[in-house]
User: Fold these one by one.
Assistant:
Number 1:
Amino acid sequence: MKLFHSPFSRSVRIVWLLEELGLPYDLETLELRSPAEGPFVQATPSGKIPTLEDEGIVLFESGAIAEWIVERHGGGRLAPAVGTADRAAFLQWMHFAESTAFSGIGCIAWHTRFRNDAESVPTAMADYRAWVTGALDVLEKTFADGRPFLLGEAFSAADCMMGYTVSVASWMSLLGPQHTQVAAYAARLAERPAFKKALSV
Ligand SMILES: N[C@@H](CCC(=O)N[C@@H](CS)C(=O)NCC(=O)O)C(=O)O
């Protein structure tokens, strides 16, 4: 497998997963070009980061890549069996992590990091923060029962997806004082050697 990666970008999710599974991979590390240059401008086969090349397949979308890796190479690890109730929850969190929970974070980054015009769009910025807070509130309720990971006692690929999301939210100071369970979840994940490795490459 060859992974196109940029430090601290969503490809961290995939490095993390590969490390958790102990799978061999080649990393092509790139500098992230500003998305303000235009859509799909990254120096990868898809124009986006992450992109995975594997067995002649070129795949983008971090969630799809993570699902492919556990299905094709996981040997039953880090994902519940297809067709089970746990699998349904797994799919929900895999997709929630990017499509719902990361969308507001991405918009905030767009205006604060790439466009530098956050002050001129205060209503939109307030909406984005509310979206992020709403998603973190869902997680806060989920972890209120004391579970260490999204699916309960078992760490799964969904935690690689969501762990990146909550870590970025934390780095961007988007967690509120009410998000104690989410903060504890992020701290728990930060101790995992595979995540530490993913953040170091
Ligand atoms: N939903 C996609 C988002 C991919 C994405 O936007 N990646 C960012 C890096 S974190 C990127 O390539 N940004 C630059 C661009 O859009 O040109 C995924 O989860 O992989």
Number 2:
Amino acid sequence: MPLTCGKCRSANVEVQIPYARMSLCSKCFVDFYLARVKKTVEEFKMFPENARVGVAVSGGKDSAALLHALRRVYPDLKLVALHINLGIPGYSDHCQVKVEKLVDILNVELNVFNLQEELGIKIGDFKKTSFKNKLCSVCGTIKRRIFEEMAVKAKVQVLATGHNLEDVAGVMFNNFLYGRWDQLARLKPVLPPLAEGMASKVKPLIRSPENENLLYCLYEDIPFREIDCPFSKRTGVRKRTEILEAIAKHNPYFKHQLLNRFLEIIPLLENVSPKPPLGRCKVCGFPSSSEICAFCKRTSLIKRLDKA
Ligand SMILES: [Zn+2]
Ligand SMILES: [Zn+2]
């Protein structure tokens, strides 16, 4: 006989939540998922009153689940979806189509930035540079910058990203192992704006495991990309995540515990090593801790290639 849901006690169990010792039907799972998003947003005071919120959507399951969940939990919230077309052949256009379908369903405004059309560069161009083995890292730097600029242009006060529990716990663990305290501090659930007029950055899915984001997408029939980025590689962080998964098999609550402990120590780290105020990049004027920002250092390599 199939088990009945531990919450409504009527429908059949479809999802096991081992760390919470719950067995839920699909409807109760969706309620559970949405309640956690709401609780996370409120716990960390992610959205100031009347804020316009931008959501960085890649076409992947996490950010798709985020946009959908926020629309569900906060029907009156002013939401704008922000998407970057990275110009990766056989991949980026597929992602954009999924994002367009999603915003159509939700009736949310969408702003798209096409890297090739607007900056004349594609992520693949970095194959010809010293970053050829670090495409994911350079792609991350470029995306972070463009989203910051898109947020200003879209006049949003808050920029929400779909970082999930594994992303955050994995990177935190990695930074911890290597003693990168300043980078550990950057994983806070809410990051203040880099400068006046810019958006704060928030991670409403920080407590949502990756597989639950996927399940939420499947139960809610949410369009998301079905192919992987052809440039993505197993990085150090990915391997570290596998270590976390191995421990989680023995202790399902482990990743949550790790996250909770990190969240407790982050404020202490900031007191130990206060950050110097940010200057401005000499080239683009963007807030930066070095004379020339990471974005300009990388994109100038491509511009130099074009001239050669
Ligand atoms: Zn139920
Ligand atoms: Zn710059």
Number 3:
Amino acid sequence: MTLADVLRQRRSIKRFTNRPVSREEIETLLTAATLAPNHRLTQPWRFYVLGPQARQAYGLALGERKARKLDDAGAADALRDRVADEHRALPCMIVVAIVRNESAEMAEEDYAAAMMGIENLALAAVEMGLGTHIKTGGVMEDPDAREAVGVADDQRIVAVVNVGEPAEVPPPKPRRRSESLTTWTK
Ligand SMILES: Cc1cc2nc3c(=O)[nH]c(=O)nc-3n(C[C@H](O)[C@H](O)[C@H](O)COP(=O)(O)O)c2cc1C
């Protein structure tokens, strides 16, 4: 598989098979992430590989946030529990955090580096026959979600990456051609 194949085949995967992701596979993915460029070699990324209890607790925190938007108490409870169960059932969930930095410039660079690491991870997964779904949102700052992860106080969660064998690979989403986005200067 060439890099061009990998780039074209990567998708955000929302449904996974029940095939577990091995610790060795996860370590290979995390090693790929740590090869990303990072200014000043800060290596800002920290990884939390969640076990089933932590996944459920994170899902509960996310489900609770979604449930709060519903008026019907029964529907809200059902939604919260469904989101929690869905998270518990995930084959693998990796939370990526970065060490907070008081310098706005360095914090931005560290965030960028972490996202490059996540892309490395996502591309390595494709080569291994795995799929990923990167997820973000307000839940990352939610105290219950942070507690579920066990993230250190001096760290900021920047993304959650679900990993597993794809049960379904969606078609590519439309992309604007690079020509329409590019200015060539003298
Ligand atoms: C930084 C970042 C955050 C994302 N957050 C979410 C998210 O919270 N929920 C979600 O369903 N997808 C999320 N995605 C996935 C995008 O929706 C997805 O990449 C986009 O729709 C293009 O689809 P593709 O990845 O299959 O090419 C995120 C992607 C990135 C890069």
Number 4:
Amino acid sequence: MRIKAAVAHGPGKPFTLEEVDLDTPRDDEILVKLVATGLCHTDIVLRDAALPLPAVLGHEGAGIVEAVGSAVTKVAPGDHVVLSYGSCGACPSCDNEAPFYCHSFIPQNIGGFRPDGTPTITQNGQPLFAHFFTQSSFATHALATEVNTVKVRKDAPLELLGPLGCGIQTGAGSVMNGLEPLPDEAITIFGVGSVGLAAIMAAKLIGCRPIIAVDLMDSRLDIAKDMGATHVINPGSSDVVAEIQGITGAGALYALECTGSAAVFKQAVDCLAPRGTLGQVGVPAPGAEAAVDMGALLNKGLRLVGMIEGEAIVDDFIPHLLDLYMDGLFPFDKLVSFYDLDDINQADVDNANGKIVKAVLRMPLD
Ligand SMILES: [Zn+2]
Ligand SMILES: [Zn+2]
């Protein structure tokens, strides 16, 4: 079918809204008419990577099921859904309820094509790089599968919900499923974009104290305070390690690194208390390496752990976060600014400048 998509044409080049062709759903596929999609940092990282073909990215889709393949039983036309990440369902991680560490996570999510190599989106008969996170949601319609399609309650504002599929789930889940701090334990969040702010909301829900936010943008530190941070530090004007020791005494028992910077990673390790745990969430540049004080690692019994997609089982966690939102306990809507899909390039600029925290792109009406 003919659909509209924001097509990426290479590093630094603007997205352009174009007509493309979406394949018909196979037996195991779900056709979703998208209402809106979040814009995630990973989309921009991939746009700026040297992809082999023009690409349809986007991986925080929310919409309404339009049609399902003959083998699909999980959802039916008319259901409201949020789309999340793909996994194979058959590897040792998937078998052990850890699909976020699927052995084929990369080909499933950023391979560009279905696992059998066929394209989901073409243009003038030529394949595009798509099937992104088993969706490619910068488009009016997407093909997903049961694995990454999550049915959500119909009384929720569907156009808001896409970020639950990646960014918001990543921040909140890294605290709630990954670090699992207890009430009154100290946590520091390094980098408070949408992921870090979702982590702060989760830490507040748990009752962590203190909750320390670290970021170079004062505007984001102000939002962090609104979301539950008890202390904020701008490393541009203060010594982060000394400040955190001043607040906590021995250091924080938990830290979440949301920037992907090797220098920040080292700082986050240096701020940990004995028996402290660092969760690495920020996506680093390809090949990035970070230095660690091996003596401190040993003597303090530190744990340094990577965390993908908030270690979330999406069918449980996304409806849980949504229930918390509907009960007024997880106000992630305060982080969202809406744009039309046509204005995706402006959304990218505003996000990079810190003018907004999280862009959600609305699809054009028919
Ligand atoms: Zn797997
Ligand atoms: Zn993402």
